[in-house]
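Let's practice the habit of predicting before peeking. Look at the sequence and jot down your guess about where helices and strands might fall. Then scroll down.
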Amino acid sequence: MGDRGARLSVPSPPNPAAQRAPGPWDTGKGGFRPVDGWVAGCSAWLCLGYVARKRGNGDNCACNGARQIESDTLEGDVSDNSTPVPTDLLFQRDSGLRESLATVVAVDEATRGVALDRTVFYPGGGGQPNDIGEMTREVDGRAWPVASVRKAGAVVWHELGGEDSLPAVGDAVLARIDWERRYRLMRMHTALHALCGVVFRDYGALVTGGNMGPDRARMDFEMDSAEFTPERVAEIERRANEELRAGREVRVRLLPRDEAFQIPDLIRTKINLLPEGIAEVRTVEILGLDLQADGGTHVGNTREVGTLRVVGTRSKGKANKRLEIELDDPAEAALDGAGGGAGG
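Done guessing? Here is the structure:
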């Protein structure tokens, strides 16, 4: 685990020479390529999320008709009267980053929204809540709470609490997430992927829905009532915990669409929610157990998750069954020593 979570990311100009294309998905040799052009994120349920690369002002996308990405057109007046530059999503490449130096590129006074050139703040999606935290101006140390975060088109907006005047375009700031809360969400998200992997591998059941918080989560599966017995639930819990204790690495990669769709069973949801036209797909792999499209943040190894407990079950229909879970903290994953975010 080391100290990856404590690293400080310092802004630097784009370096095209540092870009490298991902390798074959099944060799583990792929690398991250910074996403150029406009980026739109759209995710639905917990086992599905993605990053789509768009050049120029691409169309919005919808997830199964249930949630539409915010419009690229901003509500309210932006201080510099121009379209903000796309936000570099640092959390996509390294979930263990806790803070980053950044530059303010736009301010929306109406919503108290501040856009940065880069961010460690996850804006929410795929059932994972947005991050919260703090933003501090470098020149004078003035701090604002980051009460909410949202993604509108290619831009992540950090909505600041309080009533003080907002930082100005061009200000250098330190953006810091609430790491304790984020790390709990990372553990929970990885736990759900392990659960999803076990249920798909052993019973062939697809995901039909899900949601999560730092302390509790739920996942719905396509499973017949006759199969959803107390014995089956206990077996699922036992097998999921065996996989978590196995210490499996969690690996994140960004793949060209054509390459990604050569992966068997990439989509684990009942409906394929990846719209046509996206150029790249972000994948999260628990080595030896689970590999699927996903846009959220994860720990770097399943040992960080702890013990999964099924605390509730519910039938949502003849072939739609819900498992509700909580986690017990792993002994070795004290927050001060943990920094294991999944990355490329």
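How did you do? The chain has two domains: 4-12+27-178, 182-253+263-328.
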